[in-house]
Protein 1
Amino acid sequence: MSDLIIYTDGAALGNPGPGGYGAVLIYGKHRKEISEGFVLTTNNRMELLAVIVALRQINKPEIPVSIYTDSKYVCDAISKNWLGNWVKKGFKNVKNVDLWLEYLKVSKPLNIKFNWVKGHAGVPENERCDFLATQAAKNRAVNRDYEYEKIAQF
């Protein structure tokens, strides 16, 4: 059984500002691209949301998943078990708690391996995700990131 390969990226123009995410899912000969834009959000929120939305697409939890991201924030939080420590401490002083809780929920039944890739280094699928995320932020930023807007200071 081959792995489901997922590439993800997030973007925010202004950070905070209009944002978007992009993801490319590849399984054998099958390929799916997803992206979405938001009116006001942050880069880290979009990086994490890209992973969450991609994982929501999985309907066969027994398939191993390899996620490739250029986000040290997301990759290190999981690979270095920062997330586990945040959970133990009740997410005290942690940003994006709503999304981390959603990640824990959607990732629970899955066998996931995270891989960090250098951004803007010519990795084709990472470049595609960057394009999808940026275009979503620029041209389709219509959704609202209500959780972020609750805490945003204007």
Protein 2
Amino acid sequence: MGIKSIAENRRAYHEYFILEKYDAGMVLMGTEIKSIRKGAVQFKDAYVSFQGGEAILKEMYIAPYEEGNRFNHEETRERKLLLHRSEIQKLEKKVKLKGFTIVPLTLYLKDGRAKLEIGLAKGKELHDKRETDKERTAQREIEKAKKQHR
């Protein structure tokens, strides 16, 4: 079946330095996966926290499914992430001790199952954001010059 990208959190790359990436499964309800397949997802304020040795995704918006009637899901409910215990312990330790945060980066379907790519992130300062923008602009100009030269 392959991989189909559903949504990408571009804002995360602007707001944070992404140090490590992990793939996680998600525990979803039937109406949630149907909405995800339609692409009705937003990462705006989403983040990952830890409770009782489990990784929990919070504040990710999945629109209600139109044909879901009374069995529809709550839009921003907490969703359990499926990671190996060692990965959870490693991430939880880094978040508590070093002040990192974990943000969702990409939501995709792999062989019909919803997967979430999460990143261990450190917040950028304003000057870091400006530096990143300058680098991006310079790279664009280089590419443009190469294209014109050909």
Protein 3
Amino acid sequence: MAKEDQPAERVVAHNRRARHDYAILETVEAGLVLTGTEVKSLRAGKASLAEAYATVEGKEAVVRQLHIPPYEQGNRWNPDPVRARKLLLHRAEIEKLAAAVARKGHTIVPLKLYFSKGYAKLLLGVARGKQTHDKRHAIAERDARREVERARRGGERGE
């Protein structure tokens, strides 16, 4: 397969709960500092963003609880699956994230882990937690869209 035929972005993991539990205010793409066996494990499609979160510590951004299981053909020096991993961002982006987190109720949530042009990337979202009534409203909207789509498809078939 030629380089031009490959997709520009290959998704490894999604954090589906993030968009349900949080209102995403803005997104930032960050690189990850990984070891060789972690990259191989990601290329095999193994990772979990379920409990992951990002923080700004001093002048560095770090993602925690990102689970990348050990590479099966790796050796005994495989790194810890949930170790803290440094994020590669410009200084201005880190300062912007730090300012966003300083506001009450805001946090940094990993949304998607993917490969872009051969590099592992993490899509981060500056998010504010949703209240229960906001979640109910979103579920009601989704159900209404589903009903409209179902009715539209039924009309196309001649039912």
Protein 4
Amino acid sequence: MKLYTMPGTCALAPNIAVAWEDAPIEIVNLPYGDHKSDAYLAVNPRGQVPALVFDDGSVLTEGAAILAFIGAKFGGDAFARDTPLGYREAEALSYLSSEVHAAFKGHFSPGTFAETPQSEKIVRHKTYARLDSHFKRLNDWVAESDGPWLLPERSYADAYLYIVMRWIERTPLKLEDYPKLAEHQREMEKDESVQLALERQGMKPTKA
């Protein structure tokens, strides 16, 4: 199997999961821009990472789906979907992917929602307010779990949380305004598997 990644992207989350489980999955890190190449479009016509290619040539996309596969195949029974931790992890991954990750589109691609520079400013203002609301909720979530993890035990949701919180550096928002999330980031970056995944994806720790 091969997992296609690219620096700075949410593909870091399944990359971390592969490292945590020492799963026999090859990491193929694309140079930025190669996700639009003909060679990669033959893998994923949408031109997005991550993509997991199975030995039979079939392809699985979407970070949360790939994380679910890695957990089911290599993660053991601790986070099976019919356990309390398992369905809480599924809930957290759904929120992180469909709400938090999606909210960043107003930052990365404001032109999708705006036709003029003035309306783009409005989109960005609303985007940062929405992200701030999400980050406050996530900060409370970590606090309620007694930290440093999003759930009472470390899960793949922490891998997804880690990458979306790294993107805060690209916005006017500040990580230090969410102390539990800053603690989470520091704890993740102590992890040798996280360090390995960052290296494999051409990224460095933030040293939050």
